[in-house]
Amino acid sequence: MSDGDCLKICVVGPSGVGKTLLARTLGGQVAASAAYSSTVAVRVQQVTHNCPSGEAVAVNLFEASGDSQQHWPVLSPHTDGLLLCLDPSQPDQVTR
């Protein structure tokens, strides 16, 4: 793991696909508003998940803005996992 006993998971994808909603849902937060508001730079949220074995696992979710390519050199070191978010109603996102 990247930071002691904490996993580092990056949430990336094009603008407007729901990365913030996904990260907030995983963190047990209710969406503050239905209005779209783009993420500026990177938002970090710590989430603790209780596994069936009883072990608690801490996860840092690094949610990157839609233009995350410019942030990747900072995000990528010590990353344990990646959640790629795409909008299935926009097939052109897969070919970019």
Rg over alpha carbons: 14 Å
Tell me the series of helices and strands, N- to C-terminal: EHEEHEH
CATH class: Alpha Beta
Terminal Cα separation, in Å? 31 Å
What brief labels describe this structure?
single chain, 96 residues, alpha/beta, Rossmann fold, four-stranded mixed sheet, 30% strand, globular
Walk me through what this model shows:
This protein has a 4-stranded mixed β-sheet, with helices on one face. The model has no long low-confidence stretch (mean pLDDT 78). It contains 3 helices and 4 strands; from the N terminus they run E-H-E-E-H-E-H. It is of the alpha/beta class and 96 residues long.
Briefly characterize the structure.
The chain has helices at about 20-25, 70-75, 90-95; strands at about 5-10, 40-50, 55-65, 80-85. The protein is of the alpha/beta class and about 100 residues long. It has a four-stranded mixed beta sheet with strand order 2-3-1-4, covered by helices on one side.
Topology overview:
Blueprint: E1 6-12, H1 19-26, E2 42-50, E3 56-64, H2 72-75, E4 81-84, H3 92-95
Parallel strand pairs: 1-3, 1-4
Antiparallel strand pairs: 2-3
